[in-house]
Amino acid sequence: MIKLFAEFVFLVSRTETPVPLPLKPGKEKDRWEKLEPFPKDVYRGPLESENVEPAPIGGTWYPKKPTDPASIRSVILHLHGGAFVIGDGRTAASGPMADLFLKQGKTGPIFIPQYRLSSRPTSAPFPAAPQDALTSYLYLVRTLGIPASNIAISGDSAGGNLVIALLRYIAEHGAALDIPQPGSAIIFAPWVAPVKFLWPEVVITSNPNFHSDYLGTELCKWGAKTYIRGVEPDHPYVVPLGHPFQNARPDARGIRRGRDPGH
């Protein structure tokens, strides 16, 4: 199954197959939520861009949308992986991860946003995805009134990269914008150096874990070249590796997987 999945990822990446991101509910029905961006002043500093502005996005609740969000004791905001070019928050793509949290973690409701991708047809490079991550977090905190201390931000692969970017943004701009720190963060195999996939391929293939990596190089090359546009390749919000920052909360934890050479 891993080999079949690797071949599928290779074909999708080589052809740069477009990923449509409709804003209609679809099969998710009442679990779907459309989010409008907040005032532009919220997206400042590294999230400001002349070419990429905050935009409406969607997201899916698992197992269902809460009826009284402010009373929820724990909520997970999960940012999916996919090298910034594939994936979404809907059931077909993100349902298995949500089921894992619900069954094994015995957690409360989960919200997985459909952040904009740097691939076609929308082609939204950095900082679109971090803007959408912030929109999703503020939706929980400001729109629904969920206490920030009850929210865990989670992400895998490119989603892990976005979690780090969101935490960095809150640490650097949260006080001025009245954006509270989340209760905790869970990061699975974060893609901490997309810029490496813009370097010669030997940098990747010489990694001892390369041959057991089901992602290969095509997906990550595609993601890196489309996501990193208009900014320095080693921008701290794009490449967290080597760019530490002070987080106000001591209980952010990382779960590292040693298989993927890009992580």
From TrEMBL:
Domain (Alpha/beta hydrolase fold-3) ranges: 76-243
Determine if Hydrolase is one of this entry's keywords: yes
Q: Which InterPro entries match?
A: AB_hydrolase_3, AB_hydrolase_fold, GDXG_lipolytic_enzyme, Lipase_GDXG_HIS_AS, Lipase_GDXG_put_SER_AS
The GO molecular function terms of this record are: hydrolase activity
> Residue span of the signal peptide, if any?
none
Active site positions, chain numbering: 157
Q: Which UniProt keywords apply?
A: Hydrolase
Q: Which SUPFAM superfamilies match?
A: alpha/beta-Hydrolases
Against Pfam families, the record matches this protein to: Abhydrolase_3
The text of the family note is: Belongs to the 'GDXG' lipolytic enzyme family.
Q: How is this protein named in the record? A: Alpha/beta hydrolase fold-3 domain-containing protein
